[in-house]
Amino acid sequence: MSPAVTANVDPPPIKLAIFGATGRMGLAIARLAHAAPDLQIVGCVCSDADPGHGRDIGELAGIGQVGVVTTADVASGLLGADVVIDFSVASAVSALFAVAARQKVAVVSGTTNLDENALKALERAAQSIPVLWAPNMSLGVQVLSELVEQAVRRLGPGFDVELTEIHHRRKVDSPSGTAKRLAEAARAARPELRDVHGRSGDVGPRPPEEMAVYGLRGGDVIGDHTVFLFGQGERLELTHRASNRELFAHGALRAAQFLAGKPAKRYTIADVLG
Ligand SMILES: NC(=O)c1ccc[n+]([C@@H]2O[C@H](COP(=O)([O-])OP(=O)(O)OC[C@H]3O[C@@H](n4cnc5c(N)ncnc54)[C@H](OP(=O)(O)O)[C@@H]3O)[C@@H](O)[C@H]2O)c1
């Protein structure tokens, strides 16, 4: 009888589609995914008005031809994919969730400013496929939001909570999805906190339940967030600064690797961190 032969066989690569593929984040995802041995780009979706429509995603991303041409047809862009990573626009994601659920493709979505309809589409999709939506894919921001909740709870109503976010001049939504998430983290500790998005004129003394959430825009800032806790004679500032866009792409790819093969459910970055 011949002895049993065992061999180390690498698992097949995770088949990845990119939605919003020609955008800044989409191209960063394409560059990193192409370099990752356990990932294979199989489809790329962009809008039909995009100048990159019908072109090889590798050429657009500056890494040479990879043999995947961008399409505006969501169904064919997702064909054969295990996971789709989405960084696009809020108005496009409901259609993406519906097609992904139909074709059983897991979704990692980082698109911000989702409206109620898009969030409903997300919840519906999570009944039949794994879905992870995070307004900030950074692992550091996840830990920051945990620290914010803890600090607001420990310091209590004697401390005034305020929040700033700074982004590049081309950002289209405000406040940032991350700022909203940090505000939620503060509210998890103090539910009475109420966002204000501007103070001007004769506004009177600051009520304790107010929480300013202010956005600054300019230049090429990738994304800075600070939560201030102002007390008597002291203040705490909890800050996260993103220094390059690849940080978010790395987080999204890690989420895609985590999600592939998982049961249908809505997941969070906290699940990815374990
Ligand atoms: N979660 C995070 O960590 C994180 C990090 C960075 C950014 N973001 C968010 O991710 C999103 C994209 O950011 P970005 O900086 O990459 O923006 P961007 O450069 O403007 O890219 C968005 C892309 O989506 C495309 N698009 C529009 N409609 C589409 C459709 N129907 N189907 C497919 N693609 C479509 C746009 O194409 P056209 O130009 O032709 O319209 C564009 O190429 C924003 O919501 C941003 O706030 C999240």
Question: How would you concisely characterize the structure shown here?
Answer:
With 274 residues, the chain is α/β, with parallel strands linked by helices. Helix content is 33%, strand content 23%.
Features of this protein?
9 helices, six-stranded parallel beta sheet, 33% helix, 274 residues, binds NADP nicotinamide-adenine-dinucleotide phosphate, alpha/beta
* Helical residue percent band: 25-40%
Using the alpha-carbon principal axes, give the shape: elongated
* Distinct helical segment count: 9
User: What is the number of E strands?
Assistant: 11
Distance between the termini: 45 Å
Judged by helices, strands and strand pairing, the structural class is alpha/beta
Question: What oligomeric arrangement do these chains adopt?
Answer: single chain
Biggest sheet statistics = 6 strands, parallel
C-alpha Rg (nearest Å) = 21 Å
| Global mean pLDDT | 95
Order of helices and strands: EHEHHEHEHEHEHEEEEHEH
- Structure ligands: NADP nicotinamide-adenine-dinucleotide phosphate
Strand content: 15-25%
Explain this structure.
This protein is of the alpha/beta class. It is built from nine helices and eleven strands. The strands form two sheets. It has a six-stranded parallel β-sheet, with helices on both faces. A five-stranded mixed β-sheet has the order 7-8-6-9-10, with helices on one face. The longest helix has 17 residues, at 139-155. The model has no long low-confidence stretch (mean pLDDT 95). Bound molecules: NADP nicotinamide-adenine-dinucleotide phosphate (NAP).
